[in-house]
Amino acid sequence: MQTSDKTGNCNRVLIALGGNLGGQMDSPVAYLQFGIDQILQSMVELVAISRFYRTPAFPPGSGPEFVNAAVLCKTDLCPNDLLAMLHRIELAAGRLRSERWGPRVLDMDLLAVGDCVLPDADAFRRWHDLPLDAQMAQSPDELILPHPRLQERGFVLVPLMDIAPDWRHPVLQETIAEMHARLPVSELAEITPIDPEIAGPGAQHGLSWAGKRSM
Questions:
Q1: Residue in 107, 115, 153, 162 annotated catalytic
Q2: Residue 27 confidence class, pLDDT cut points 50, 70, 90
Q3: Does residue 37 carry a catalytic annotation?
Q4: Domains with residue ranges and CATH for the chain
Q5: Tell me, what's the pLDDT at 212?
Q6: pLDDT at residue 154 above 90?
Q7: Looking at the chain, which terminus has fewer C-beta neighbours within 10 angstroms, N or C?
Q8: Catalytic, out of 37, 76, 109, 213
Q9: For this structure, is 109 an active site residue?
Q10: Tell me: the pLDDT tens digits for 2-22?
């Protein structure tokens, strides 16, 4: 992945998308496509799109199955402006933040911006080391980068393998491919790609189905 200074200038950006409610757009696939369309209309250059995947709800039993994907972008926006943009897109989609980790029409997580570590490595480590029960009850009041949970979530790592297998975590010093290799086989078996005839955003936006591996 291309790296830069900690202002986020000229950085490559990883964003995860997910949803498990149909809402007014009828399906999670439609909401993810809406999110990608909104990115295309923003100040962000869309470089690559992963396949769309069906994944179990997290935490287990918390709702219908999800559809997940990831995108690789390039932008001069700083991380906090990027996060604000994603929140605006979620709001436009009708996202309601009434329940942490609850069902939702569209969730857009800023996973990484270049090699930024925000606000610092100590804060990242505190959230990285948080037990699951505390994760479910607490949320940070500032942006944490990289996303402190990306290294343990199959529904994030599997789409990232399509577009950024060689991206290296600036704190953990592991690539997406190395983190993916540690996932349990049973977890990977539950994550299945959706037929591109149903969800093919790469072709729709002039990109290959699994994106351009340009990182």
A1: 107
A2: confident
A3: no
A4: 11-202 (3.30.70.560)
A5: 44
A6: yes
A7: C
A8: 109
A9: yes
A10: 333 333 344 889 999 999 887
